[in-house]
Amino acid sequence: MAGTDRTKKSQMTLPEGGPAIILVTPQLGENIGSSARAMLNCGLADLRLVRPREGWPNDYATKAASGADAVLNGARLYGSTRDAIADLNRVFATTARPRDLVKRVVGPRTAAAEMRAAVGRGERIGVLFGAERMGLHNDDVTLADTIVEVPLNPAFSSLNLAQAVLLVCYEWLQAGGVLAPRDGLMPTGVSRPATREEVVGFYEHLESELDACGFLKPPEKRPAMIRNIRNIFQRAGLTDQEVRTLRGIVTGLCHWRANGIKRRPDEY
Amino acid sequence: MAGTDRTKKSQMTLPEGGPAIILVTPQLGENIGSSARAMLNCGLADLRLVRPREGWPNDYATKAASGADAVLNGARLYGSTRDAIADLNRVFATTARPRDLVKRVVGPRTAAAEMRAAVGRGERIGVLFGAERMGLHNDDVTLADTIVEVPLNPAFSSLNLAQAVLLVCYEWLQAGGVLAPRDGLMPTGVSRPATREEVVGFYEHLESELDACGFLKPPEKRPAMIRNIRNIFQRAGLTDQEVRTLRGIVTGLCHWRANGIKRRPDEY
Known about the structure:
homodimer, 7-stranded parallel sheet, 10 helices, 7 strands, 11% strand
């Protein structure tokens, strides 16, 4: 999806204290780059790499990051998971398959709420992700406080590494309510929602023309027909511009009829 | 993340009537394959392609699908968006950048709830995704009832195509509550949570040894020390096996002390 607004670069404020994303022995540079992109999509920047298989830096990672260079360039390299999480107060471990470990399991949404709460208390937190093929080693999961398990299709639950990173980062961002979703918004651009006077004016214009051409017959059905027609347009939530457009359409159609072929609409 | 349980293949029931995922003029086979994988991760299978740039079928798609071949092989090809959505009753269009269109906008979570409701009423639904570089053309967005906008970092909101597909499919799956997340579960494997008798038996064992070695002094501090020590282990939510392990540790340490160097623990 295209859509980065480059004019907003200056407004870009990465939330302080968001979770560190720790990729343990990742195999493919592409996945590291895609993870960096997903992190920045969600306003996170603390990327840590434990012994990436293909070495570091990695051209495939840069290509897949698609501009999230700041995250890649800031990535820190570690020789062990232990070192990568040394400064953290709370660690989550992502797993797809159940582990033979007695450790609390949560979904990504609950994990995100808990991360927000922990950060609110001033804790430093991180999330461990394992290698593409096998996921995290149990030795690494053991170092975490909580397991994050994404509830997916049990017959096909193997998520791509960068997809797993995205889901965790996405839930983190949503849990913050920092960026209010525009849920239910009807953007009207340079227009504005039409006033009721404008809307009803259009209805009356349309109905007078429909009366003139004999469409609203028989008379006993006229009130119900008008209600049904008005309701169609009412549902559209018209803007002032759209009301003008519709009035133009009615005028245009009537003008065409007046100057051309004489057919009643119900003959169409 | 590794983790598909192949023994569950036979239990795999793709939800009927889930949204069709419609990729309009996708550029890269990899993204088509990754989208198919994300769909199957979330139990969706109806993939539709409008004029894929690199033709179809596509080897890169197969590689990136990582086993989601059933989705790829079932993908249907269309010459236009209009044809691809012809059988649908309700269409959502994903966009990253705001459009100059008067059309209701929702986030993916609200969209998923609305999709579930629509499917519950017997409607057939679909979600349009545009090409990697520019997203959907406004002509295609116009054909949709509702815009889905993912609230992301405004300075870097360009999601990879397959990442966008994943988020929509993930929210669809979560909205269904089909797969209860194991939120808050503490799996204990073949063990079981220890009984209070077992736990307190361990505490008393430990405390008797601590009394013997002179650790619980001075006497007026003993009750608080015991509370603090008990509380450490209480928080761990021990299993029966773990209680046995801890008792073995205490016995082992005491035995070592009894047979070896005579130091009091507070001298360490």
